[in-house]
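Standup notes, protein team

Yesterday: finished cleaning the Pomatorhinus ruficollis set.
Today: MCUR1 regulator structure.
Blockers: none.

Input for MCUR1 regulator:
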Amino acid sequence: RRLYFDTHALVCLLEENGFTTQQSEVIVSALVKIMNTNLDMIYKDMVTKVQQEIALQQVMSHIGGVKKDMIILEKSEFSALRSENEKIKLELQQIKKQVTDEITKVHADNKLNLNLEKSRVKELVSFHAQQDRALTQTDRKIDTEVADLKTMLESHKLDNIKYLAGSVFTCLTVALGFYRLWI
């Protein structure tokens, strides 16, 4: 071990500042002991170059073992996972095709139902239009018949009034005739 300061220069410095030679030497030796103790503690925690190389070799051998294990796992487990993944992809494609077919079928059914409903609605609309025309024609016929009946009723009413007036005048004439005869 080397000390990286000059102990004699430190003793001289202490003597210049009022310490005796004996006191300066005791202080410097105490400092050297403290530094040596600290260095011992530090060296205990440190690793030598040889120990470091051995540890590095051990780590490298562990890494090599892990690489070998990974290669073995890749060949066995990963290939099993890949085959399982391929199976799942095929199943998903089949399901996708089935769903697409079902969607197409439902779309076609809905389109057919929609067209049927449209034609049925058109038929209902035309039927209602025919009914409305027939109803309008019937209303016109009824109105015409009612008007004809009113006209006929008025003409019969006038005829009845004529006959009634004629009968009343005839009766009056006969009554006046009898009245003249009797008077």
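Follow-up from PR in the comments: Residues 99 and 105 are 10 Å apart (CA to CA).
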